[in-house]
Each structure stands twice: as C-alpha cells, then as structure tokens.
Amino acid sequence: MAKKHIVSETNETISAVITALGEGAVGIIRISGTEAAAIGDKLFRSASGKRLTEHTPHLLVYGHVVDEENSKIDEVLAVYMQGPHSYTAEDVVEIQSHGGLQSLKTILGLTYKMGARPAEPGEFTKRSFFKRTYRFDSGGSSYGYY
After folding, report:
1. How far apart are CA 106 and CA 83, in angstroms?
2. Segment holding 95, helix H or strand E
3. pLDDT tens digits, residue range 60-115?
4. Contact 61, 55 (CB under 8 A)
5. Residues of 118-135 as b/e, b for ≥16 C-beta within 10 angstroms?
6. What is the dihedral of CA 110, 145, 131, 94, to 10 degrees?
7. Which pTM does this prediction carry?
8. Would you put residue 30 in left (φ > 0), alpha (ψ -120 to 50) or beta?
9. What are phi and psi of 37, to 5 degrees?
C-alpha cells in the first residue's frame, strides 16, 4: 500500500506537471517546499548567467533547463516565488517548458533526482488550504487566495 503523506505536517519538497498532459504548446512544472529554490538553482540557467533566486521573485526569467552534466534540456521560462507569497505559502519554482511529453518527463525526472518527490493528486491545493491561503465555497469549489 502506498504511503500517505500528511501534508499539513510535512516539509518535503514536491513536484508535478500542473498543466494537462498531451498535445499543447506549453507545459508547466511546479516545485514546492523547503528545497524548491535550491532545486530551481541547480536545474535552471538564466540567459543573464544569474541564478534563478538572484532574480526578483515573481519575475519570469528566460533560460534553459540543464541536466547533471550541464547539457541543455529545453528552452524555458522560470519563476521563483518566495514563501509565503505563493500558491502553497512555501517557496515555489515554476518552469514553463515546451508542452511535449518527453520534455516534461525529463524535467520532472530531474526534479526527483535533485530531491523532490512526486506530488500526490491535489497536494498543492491541500498545502495551500492547510496554510490558509486558499478558500473553498460552500459547494466545495476552490476560488482563490484571500
């Protein structure tokens, strides 16, 4: 049986593709948790040469995702959102890559190698809810930050 994580009591870093898989122009990978910034700095090379976390938070930055040998994987836009000013109220990195399945799988695999674990279904929203940054209406639909 799979281990269930109690998201309100964990500091584990998680990552997942947050856009629909399949044919699309852009795919987004979200990394959230205590190691998100460090993983983003290892994974991303900005065109300016600065680390992702050296850029202004919440600013999209152009560059490339690289692997462990510093080989370019994909041309991307990345953003670092310093907690608590993010969807999950944790440090978050989002990488906007080409939407092809192979690119997304490769980048996601790199996040796992660098210390993130796969996010469970709905885990980003659970973290947001437990940290009181997201609301649900009486019917159970989520509708945004407060």
Report:
1. 26
2. strand 92-98
3. 999 999 999 999 999 999 999 999 889 888 999 999 999 888 999 999 999 999 99
4. yes
5. ebeeebbebbbbbbebbe
6. 10
7. 0.84
8. beta
9. -65, -45
